[in-house]
Amino acid sequence: MLFRSIYKIITLLFFRQILKFKFLFKGFILFERGLSASLMIIIFLVGCDSFRNNDDIKLAVSLKDKARVNALIAEKQILSAEPFNRKLKKKKESNTYIHIDSNRTGINFVNKWSPGPQYENQLENSFISAGVAIGDYNNDGLQDVFLSRQQDGGRLYKNLGGMQFEDVTEIAGILDDKMWSTGVSFIDINNDGWLDLYVCGFDSHNKLYINTKGKFEEKAKAYGLDYKGASVMMAFADYDSDGDLDAYLLTNRLTMSNDSVMTKITGSKNGKLQVEEEYKELGYFLERPGTYPALINAGQYDYLYKNENGYFKDITAESGIGKNPYYGLSATWWDYNNDGRPDLYVANDFMGPDHLFKNMGLNENGIVQFLDVTDEAVPYTPWFSMGSDYSDINNDGKMDFMASDMAGSNHYRDKVSMGAMTGPNSEAWFLNFPNPPQYMRNMVYLNTGTKRFMEVGYLSGLSATDWTWTVKFGDLDNDGYEDVYFTNGMSRDFGNGDAKDRFRSQKSKSVNNFDFWNDQEPYKLKNMVFKNLGDLKFDDVSSSWGLDYLGVSTGSALGDLDGDGDLDIIMNGFDEAVRLYDNNLNDKNSIRLELIGKETNSRALGARVEMHYNESSKTMTRYVSSSRGFMSSSESVIHFGLGTYEKADKITISWPSGIVQVLEDIPVGHLYKIAEKSNSKKIKPKHQTIFKKSNSSLSKVKHREKIFNDFKREKLLPNKLSQLGSGVSWGDVDGDGDDDAYLGGASGYSGKIYINNGSGAFDNLPQKTFMKDSRYEDMGSIFIDPDNDGDLDLYVVSGGVECQQGDKILQDRIYLNDGSGNYSRGFSGLLPKMYDSGGIVSAADIDKDGRLELFIGGRVVPGSYPQSPRSYMLKNIGPKYVDVTDAIAPGLKQKGMVTSAIFSDVDGDNWTDLLISYEWGPIRFFRNYSGKLVEETEKVGLGQKLGWFNSISGGDIDNDGDTDFIVGNTGFNSKYKATNENPELLFYGDFYDSGKKNIIEAKFEQNVCLPRRGLSCSSNAMPMIKEQFSTYHDFAISSVEDIYSEALLRSAEKFVANELASGVLINSKDANGVIVFEFRPLPRTVQASPIFGSSLCDVNGDGNLDLYVVQNFSGPQRETGYMKGGVSQLLLGDGTGAFKLISPDESGLVVPGDATTLTTHDFNRDGSVDFFVGVNNSNYELFMNQRRSDSYALRLPDFPKGRKYAGSKIWVYYKNDSVQLHELNIGSGYLSQSAPIVFLGNKNNIEKVVVQWTDGSINNIDMNKNINNVNSIN
């Protein structure tokens, strides 16, 4: 202020003198005018930018806000509050980021690639990259910048204000012209309040510059941090909560030669080859399926350091992290489970696994222990993991995480970089081999608050962003959601399939690796930025925000470089100048916090901050860490965008020390400095989940599969069809009044009967006949009484593809009960010959003759996907079933691949109708006309929704007295994207006159129909393609018509999918009283994985039907990758047809495996619904309801007429005048038959319950389960 005032006075006096000279010396007027103009220009250029931080360019602050800020200072809630600078922008530059040229900024910096002969092969390694660090090293309130590069150790730039910087490297004492600097970070390592600087080096000693009031002195050796090797980044955190900073050193490869050939092998240990200890940083063995282990080139070990009074001690081995010789690219400290202890994610390139190290706290020796929980926590990781970062992307208070890879952002890049999927040069075997699997795409891990993350990369739109180094989350547009910025490019296009083929062809001509790639051009790609729209949606705004720079960009950092309250970007690159972007997107509000630790480390690394705003209805969460993204560290200031909101209602700071501070009513528009002060310790409230996982005997039972290679027979098959089961059925098989279970078995494993002993435990009742039939693949099953002898017999559908078409092993089976739960195989004449691979079975009395008809849905034709299999309608005549499909329902005989079905009286005419779900088809509706089923799919509005539906189940979700339906579909979290305008297609035909039909999957991109599969897979199935398209480039630029011809495509069978959402079918009537279904997609989070089992039932006893769905599918071919992003999902209904998502940490329902069946039961007879989940090739899961809601459960077989309950209806009249319908069916959902129990909610809210039995008679049922005859329902 003083200097600025002096400047104004001098300027004014100077101009007065000029004016005097004008009158005194008229002959010098021309000179004076020129001089005046020059001075005006100088003053404009220098003066305007030099004083950007003064009062006249500060944001205007209202009197009310000034008063509140002063009160916060007076109350010692904050140390200070600095208003933001005003944005100074031109109209034409509005709503975008502005690249500011180095001539203006003063940052004349280029990361020039000139490594010399010794290191020239690093051209293909990560050390072509360079980092960025942002921090206020001289405590003047302006964020300064340090940039690393391959020569001279990097440069420090002091922020002068107004986006102008000065190179002060030498002045500040930072100079090492021989250092190849890599990852960099500003940290206060000695807690003196001044930011120190840590610089990693490649084949150079790492440097630690200790800051003494703006002057640096290198002291890495004194601190024990002068490691020399292939250092990528030093990530700092106070992982032991002792108030000082500890560190993790991430490393990579020092040489790019084939060092593994120089290893010494010790022979074998436990049958496995081992590398001698001293050679483990040269190579390691990787097990491979079906062949000998591969010897892989290793990276250097990473190191974990503990700060012991200023000296950093290596405790890598003692901590449990161990020595991992991989190619590290990013290491990020974050507290994923919110226990106050920093955890660590390490992203490793190529075949090295990523690690999520959970901080377990101190052991008895005072050493922090880390446990690798990657396999438990995530379903898969990136293959070539690069940059990584965390953010609460959906503002639910839980920290999510993202790790990047190299997946192409469009069809061309995807197909050119796909490479060989088979053959000697293929590494595709690796995709599904690790545990967890590694796929070449970005991963976005959604925190559920439990041990398991969901993975939502495809769902969020962030799965493919090209060759991505930096991942940086930040609220760039200040709207309250953190956006994400990516830097892209590479020194050369090493992933290009054609380039790799050319190199292999020239290798025989003695062309070495370096010479070949050195002659190629840099692989320049556009940087990308995605705006967070909320609801797990991100929109690519790279172009409109001005951040789509084409080049090779690597390290990047975010910070408010001009003090105007938004996040600017500075980006380093390969062989090009640094780029600085001024954020000029909008004038939305923000609050920024600079935390100053007292008991905690001085920069509060490890602090968690929650902000509540909009009358505390909205929440944002931030976590303070050091290195984030790639080789870089952003400012340590916490940034909250608030859109148009003018204050934060409450800010809660949880310091690493355990101290919690709460600030209230905080105005926007300021940078607040807040010091840690003693307060009460944080007490985390313990809440009881709705469900609790049971350890009962049933949960110890495992479904088992013999692995079968479906893709050997059909090379272009989209998904495996051999692991789709098995079914679960409930019924009272021993007549003791409680329900027992049949658990189906896969081929090679028999099904089993488990008897309910009445105390909550179940005992296996061995069945010799099941063991004899263990070669069958059990699919759907139901308990019924076809011989009308009063006990429950068992019908089991035979399916699978581990056989040929028409194999007798596909014959369905009936097992007859002796009355005590002992079963024998029914004689062959009980069923017609049905040598078709079936899936589901549902039962209903279609013609009202008192006997149940059976619908058997054909699932697949073995070896001939996607041809339509045969489905059946069977009628019970005497003791046997006969095929009456042509007589009762000819329209459903061969309509497609059936996945599920449900009988329901949709139109309320007391004739049960049928709905069927299909893969590659609609939900079909067959109306019952006096015992005949007639298809009316189009008439009820279902014909145009074509999906890959998996299941259907029913319930009255809107309390209007009719049955609505839940349909499970594939969801949005895969590479497949289907709409009416751009559907997913499949063609099935003989495309090259080979006599064999093949599958072609197709998609649309920019209105062009393109093949889903790549050149390698396609030509492996149809070799003629390789003759026509010799390069990946030629194939990548070709449409489906170019490859296969329009004539051949027209001759093929064509399948269409235009809807992949799982959703609700609302049963309603139009103005003419005609049944019409309205499709409503389920909430977006539920679309994270394919839904199989589903159940509509009252979970919390409020009288409204809730929804529980189970998910995941490991069937897709490896190019697609598993669809296991879900953990199952509970949604609470409100009685209007809408649902509210319940987080897994609240519901207690977490099923990470391939969940198939879902059945309901009341295991402990408390009136509340419990869930039993079947998981393919894994243990069954049983969840007990812990809510005590005085719920009322009605078990129909407890009543005389309830033994034959299929088709019974129950109307529940609530005291709020709503009426809810329940229908009892046999077989629905996915391969499921639940216990015949209806959960009606809190009995205190029920007025009356009316039951209509299958014979048409009606009873009132009171709460004591007594019945009274009534004549009608009203």
In a few lines, what is going on in this structure?
This protein has 1274 residues and is mostly beta strands. It contains 21 helices and 85 strands. The N terminus is likely disordered.
How many helices in DSSP terms? Answer: 21
Specify the structural class: mainly beta
Mean pLDDT: 91
Overall strand count? 85
Question: Regions with pLDDT < 50 over 5+ consecutive residues?
Answer: 1-56
Content of β-strand: 35-45%
Q: N-to-C terminal Cα separation, in Å?
A: 83 Å
Radius of gyration, CA atoms, in whole angstroms: 34 Å
Report the sheet with the most strands, covering strand number, pairing sense and barrel closure.
8 strands, antiparallel
Q: Assembly state here?
A: single chain
Question: Any idea what the shape is?
Answer: globular
Amount of helix: 10-25%
Could you characterize the architecture of this molecule?
- This protein has 1274 residues and is mostly beta strands.
- Helix content is 12%, strand content 36%.
- Strands 7, 8, 9, 10, 11, 12, 17 and 18 form an eight-stranded antiparallel sheet that branches.
- A hairpin with a 2-residue loop joins β5 and β6.
- It is globular and about 100 Å long.
- Residues 1-56 have low confidence and may be disordered.
